[in-house]
Amino acid sequence: MRSTTIVSTVSLVAVVSAAVILAMSQQEQDPPEPATPVAQGARLFRIQGCAVCHAIGNGASRGPNLAGLVPRLEQRLDPEQYQRQMAGIRKKRPDVYQQYEGVYTDILARDGEERLRAWLTAHLRNPRFDFPEGKMPNYGHLTPQQVESLIEFLLTLK
Ligand code: HEC
User: Which atom in ligand 1 lies closest to the alpha carbon of residue 120?
Assistant: First the structure.
């Protein structure tokens, strides 16, 4: 083999391996986004630390276990019951009531799943909006799209 052929073979091998290594490292940095909003929400539930406090089904749970979340929320957001809870806040924490009265009204103006979505959106932004003594951290840093995916996932917890 002539030396120029050897040199070009060696550099070809180098270029190809560099490309392979680059492709592999990029794959490591950017795992493909899960396809559906529910799968994206399930991933966010893990990487945003929700799972640290919330078991779903089996396991210890610092916060409420989120198994059966949807029927529980439906019950809690029954208009009569929710209005009673809001009247309690109005008495005990008029400052919180005044700040979030519009949000309570908006939640109650919606029906079915839309009411749960409105509540979950407000809860992620500030879990103390209707439960002033709550312990869950705020998730106001999530993008609207991340909130939407998380909610799609949470709405599967029936
Ligand atoms: C540090 C612990 C902690 C983390 C992290 C946390 N939560 Fe919570 N969560 C709580 C607690 C405690 C409550 C009960 C209400 C309260 O104290 O605010 C709660 C309540 C809830 C509820 C209402 C449950 C019910 O049955 O009424 C939902 C839904 C929820 N969290 C979803 C999430 C999601 C989604 C995340 C991540 C984006 C998250 N939580 C992160 C502690 C946490």
Answer: 29
Query: Does 22 score more than 80 pLDDT?
Result: no
Residue whose Cα lies nearest atom 35 of ligand 1: it is: 50
Residue 35 contacts by C-beta under 8 Å, 6 or more apart in sequence? none
Q: Across residues 14-21, what is the average pLDDT?
A: 60
H helices present in 54-138, as ranges: 69-76, 79-92, 94-109, 112-125
Q: How far is the CA of 54 from the centre of ligand 1 (A)?
A: 7
Q: Which two tokens stand for residue 19?
A: 């490309």
Q: Is a pLDDT exceeding 90 seen at residue 8?
A: no
Question: 132 in ligand 1 pocket by Cβ < 6 Å?
Answer: no
Tokens of 56: 């779903």
User: What pLDDT sits at residue 32?
Assistant: 76
CATH of segment(s) 36-154? 1.10.760
Say which residue the tokens 């019951």 belong to. 81
Whole-number Å distance between alpha carbons of 87 and 92: 9
Is residue 158 helix, strand or coil?
Answer: coil
Confidence of residue 139 (pLDDT cuts 50, 70, 90): very high
